[in-house]
Write a structure and sequence with these properties.
The complex is a heterotrimer of chains A (308), B (240) and C (315). Chain A is mostly helical. Chain A has one domain. Chain A has twelve helices and four strands; from the N terminus they run ααααββββαααααααα. Chain A has a two-stranded antiparallel ribbon with strand order 1-4. In chain A, strand 2 and strand 3 form a beta hairpin. In chain A, helix 1 packs across helix 9, helix 2 runs antiparallel to helix 3 and helix 2 packs across helix 8. The longest helix of chain A has 33 residues. Chain A is globular. Chain B has 240 residues and is of the alpha/beta class. Chain B has two domains: 141 residues, Rossmann fold, CATH 3.40.50.300; 72 residues, no CATH class. Helix content of chain B is 36%, strand content 26%. Chain C is mainly α and 315 residues long. In chain C, the strands form two sheets. A two-stranded antiparallel sheet of chain C has the order 1-4. A two-stranded antiparallel sheet of chain C has the order 2-3. In chain C, helix 1 packs antiparallel against helix 7, helix 7 packs across helix 8 and helix 11 packs across helix 12. The model of chain C has no long low-confidence stretch (mean pLDDT 88). The chains are: A mainly alpha (308), B alpha/beta (240), C mainly alpha (315). Chains in contact: A-C, B-C. Chains A and C meet through helix 4, helix 9 and helix 11 of A and helix 5, helix 11 and helix 13 of C. Chain C: It is a multi-pass membrane protein. Chain C: It comes from Shimia marina. Chain C: One of its GO terms (cellular component) is plasma membrane. Chain C: It holds the Pfam family BPD_transp_2. Chain C: It is found in: Cell membrane.
């Protein structure tokens, strides 16, 4: 393949990564923005989403399309319920103390991961996509008669991947509308601004916290359900989304939703394109160091008022 | 030589000038009192002098050296000592260890440190509680502990932020005696609400109002000045 | 006061004597375990120095352990350096990495400090994988028996190995006790108790914290280098996040800011994991449950609770 088509392919693959990452990271950003806690178990909620999606579609064996549709609705709700439960039984009891919350969510991380290992097992299992048409894409070349289109071999994308991009975009728009337009979003933003004041105005802050923690986990799970037909479900798959979400949330300006989505696009796209030139490990090293340096040298600049 | 010279100090908080063009000069061996109604900018001004806050504008010289940009710990190391308005000690450590932490930086060995600590505790009459945890002291004793921590550093300038706040009458009398003892070899900047104390110990009084120097003079001058009286109207601190 | 000192001497002396004596009664399997526990406890003590006494919670100490492990391993296996010199190179590597990461990470505090240390450690782990030709990546490499001679003593021999682990543990344990009683240690504790006051007493708090990070890193690296020499294996898994979580877990379990906490924490956790890994592959479940349980019910850890309830004189 020539360089041009190759780059376009990398960009398209990058857009899929970016879409999934934007969903996952906005869950983490939501929790950090409103509750001021860092959820280290976020990647495990992603993993649970994928594993449960496999479980649901497996139960529905005969009708994979219907199974997947059910998984898409039910699995995020299941994961959100579990996260809400964890919030009420653990995080609330330690008063959302930032450092102790990190330690507790590390504990939750291991509990979720290891219980999955005990029940689901160590295998990676695929989920069939509900539809998966291969769409060949055209590229142009300069010939003696001017510019003409042709279909290079290998330059294609599946309809499912396009649907993932669309679905992620739709969900993010919906989330944005909820935050900006609804009464619930108003209460969330009030809690974010000033917890004490929100309490004084009769906003049920505790319930908002539980809900937000559940929503954050639900978004990660939804992203995982979307991605599981492309990537298999495995009990250790939570590590990468966690690290990437961290990076995205930090670059995006901790807690800001539009910033997070923008950063996810940047990271997702450049991940696809950079790995054309560098080894993926080197790309990860550079990204990790870059983010650490950002936190060290531009904490105010990135977070507005110093939030961490 | 003046121990401390501050010229044109300004500190803004979101457009509000908490300290507005303050100039101040404290000569050696003086006890300078800084008074003013609540919110006059006293604590902010002391924050600028000790380096806990950065100046928006102006210049501070300490012992003839420009310290405007010097971080607080270096100012202390140069010979400033600072006691907090809100008691700030090491609660879980013993009284002795509290003072030792203050003294140790300047001592060659632990034996020296012990001697300096014992001396400082004797001067504030806390020798008998040296092994008690600081948290278990009465409030008045904690204030004295703060002063002992200041004294043990043998400072060139001792800044005391409202040292008599919350003290009983007898303790205030003890404190006045202590200042007379300290003034033998130390310059003192005293932020004080209690006018009785100011009248008895200060050589010169600076009156701050709305972040500006309203008046500067001897305690007797201050008492006679009508402007100062007006500034205090409503604040019931002027007894004389 | 004096009686407390006596009790302390008796307790800590007793623990050291017991550790020494254990080797004569333990069956072979547990003999090896206790040697391992003593080395890991050294790592935990390095972590506790920072977490327990300076109140800095790092999520990236594996990078220091790995610096010692690989510093030693590469020097001994690739450069043909002798084991004692390799050990020193390992400790030095840890100190240097600690100085660099400390100088950067200390510009942040609280949650940002935790994330920055995590990120740096992750970068360290990836760097080890990236230079797979030297480090052999995930697979790791074995340190040959001929390279594990320490002044004539063969460190692969179980009894010499036990002595070596015991010596490293003792030296670290006693140096930490001495450090805490030195002016430096007392200043560190003062900074933990009331940082603002320490600044206003003229202490350069950043310098003290940086030195604490360097000591902590060097001690962790000593543990890493010793581990490699005693057990003959160097691998990237020791640089992974899990090995940053372990010292936090050990110290939380044993009791942060207590002298014996790290040993107690490693001991209990080691056997908890040892027993549960006999029953299931998902043995890290124990770690998760213990972490959550500790944050909820016993944030002071075992020795911390003992100190709070019974023995107020414990250091």
């Amino acid at each position: 393949m020539d360089f041009g088509p190759y780059l376009m392919l990398a960009t398209l693959e990058g857009a899929v990564t970016a879409a999934v990452l934007a969903l996952t990271a906005s869950g983490l950003a939501l929790v950090f923005g409103i509750m001021r806690v860092v959820n280290v178990a976020h990647g495990e909620f992603f993993m649970l989403g994928a594993v449960l999606a496999w479980w649901v579609t497996d139960l529905m064996g005969a009708t994979p399309v219907l199974g997947f549709a059910i998984a898409l609705v039910v699995v995020p709700l299941m994961v959100a319920a579990l996260a809400t439960f964890a919030d009420m039984t653990i995080l609330k009891r330690i008063n959302y103390d930032p450092e102790r919350t990190i330690v507790a969510t590390i504990g939750i991380l291991y509990i979720l991961q290891q219980v999955t290992l005990m029940t689901y097992g160590p295998d990676a299992r695929p989920v069939t996509a509900p539809f998966n048409t291969r769409l060949a894409l055209p590229w142009f070349e300069r010939t003696e008669d001017g510019i003409s289109l042709y279909w290079p071999w290998g330059l294609s994308i599946t309809s499912y991947k396009l649907a993932v991009i669309g679905a992620a975009g739709g969900v993010l728009l919906g989330l944005w509308a909820v935050m900006k337009r609804s009464r619930l979003g108003l209460m969330m933003r009030a809690t974010e601004q000033d917890r004490e004041m929100a309490l004084a105005f009769g906003i049920p802050v505790e319930r908002i916290y539980a809900l937000v923690f559940g929503m954050g986990a639900g978004l990660a799970a939804l992203a995982a359900v979307l991605v599981v037909p492309i990537q298999q479900a495995h009990y250790l798959m939570g590590g990468d989304p966690l690290l990437l979400s961290f990076i995205v949330v930090i670059i995006g300006g901790l807690g800001s939703l539009p910033g997070t989505v923008l950063a996810a696009l940047l990271i997702g796209l450049s991940d696809g394109i950079i790995s054309v030139f560098f080894s993926p490990t080197l790309a990860k090293i550079l990204a990790t160091l870059l983010v650490a340096m950002l936190l060290v040298f531009r904490p105010q600049g990135m977070f507005g008022e110093r939030r961490l | 030589m003046s121990v401390l010279v501050a010229k044109g100090l300004i500190r803004q908080f979101n457009g509000l000038r908490a300290v507005d063009n303050v100039t101040l000069e404290i000569p050696e061996q003086q006890v300078r009192a800084l008074i003013g109604p609540n919110g006059a900018g006293k604590t902010t001004l002391v924050g600028l002098l000790s380096g806990r806050l950065a100046c928006s504008n102006g210049r501070i010289d300490f012992l003839g050296r420009d310290i405007t940009k010097v971080p607080p710990h270096k100012r202390i190391a140069m010979g400033m000592a600072y006691t907090f308005q809100i008691t700030s000690i090491f609660p879980s450590l013993s009284v002795h260890e509290n003072v030792a932490i203050a003294a140790r930086r300047l001592c060659r060995n632990e034996k020296d440190t012990r001697a300096v600590v014992a001396d400082a505790l004797k001067r504030v009459s806390l020798a008998h509680v040296a092994n008690t945890d600081a948290a278990d002291l009465s409030y008045g004793h904690q204030r004295l502990l703060e002063i002992a921590m200041g004294l043990s550093q043998s400072p060139r300038l001792l800044i005391l932020d409202e040292p008599t706040q919350g003290l009983a009458e007898g303790e205030v009398a003890e404190f006045i005696k202590l200042i007379h003892d300290i003034r033998q070899n130390t310059t003192v900047l005293l932020i004080e609400h209690n006018m009785d104390v100011v009248m008895q110990v200060a050589d010169v009084v600076t009156v701050l109002n709305h972040g500006q120097v309203l008046f500067e003079g001897t305690p007797a001058d201050v008492q006679a000045n009508i402007e100062v009286q007006t500034a205090y109207l409503g604040g019931a601190h002027v007894k004389a | 006061m004096r009686r407390d000192v006596q009790k302390n001497l008796l307790l800590h002396g007793g623990v050291l004597v017991a550790l020494f004596a254990l080797q004569f009664v333990l069956p072979a399997y547990h003999h090896g375990n206790v040697a391992r526990i003593m080395v890991l406890a050294t790592y935990a003590m390095g972590y506790n120095l920072l977490f327990g006494y300076v109140d800095l919670l790092s999520l990236g100490h594996a990078v220091f352990f790995a610096a010692g492990l690989y510093g030693m391993g590469i020097a001994v296996s690739h450069l043909g350096v002798s084991a004692p010199l390799g050990l020193m190179i390992g400790v030095l590597a840890g100190g240097v990495v600690g100085a660099i990461i400390g100088a950067l990470a200390l510009r942040t505090e609280g949650v940002a400090f935790m994330i920055v240390t995590l990120m740096f450690a992750q970068a360290g782990y990836l760097i080890i994988l990236y230079f797979g030709e030297i480090t052999r990546g995930d697979e790791g490499f074995v340190i040959q028996q001929v390279d594990r001679l320490f002044f004539g003593g063969d460190l692969s021999d179980p009894f010499i190995r036990y002595y070596a682990a015991f010596t490293v543990f003792c030296i670290s344990f006693l140096s930490i006790l001495a450090l805490l009683h030195s002016p430096f240690g007392k200043t560190l504790i003062a900074i933990r108790e009331n940082q603002e006051r320490a600044v206003m007493l003229g202490y350069n708090v950043m310098r003290f914290k940086l030195l604490a990070v360097i000591f902590s890193a060097a001690l962790s690296a000593l543990a890493g280098a010793t581990y490699g020499l005693l057990f003959g294996y160097v691998g990237a898994s020791f640089a992974s996040v899990q090995y940053s979580i372990f010292p936090l877990l050990w110290v939380l379990l044993g009791g942060a800011g207590t002298a014996l906490g790290p040993l107690v924490g490693v001991f209990f956790m080691f056997y908890l994991i040892d027993i549960s890994s006999g029953m299931t592959t998902a043995y890290m479940l124990v770690a998760g449950v213990v972490l959550v349980g500790l944050t909820l019910f016993a944030p002071q850890g075992l020795m911390g609770e003992i100190r709070r309830r019974f023995w107020r004189w414990l250091p």
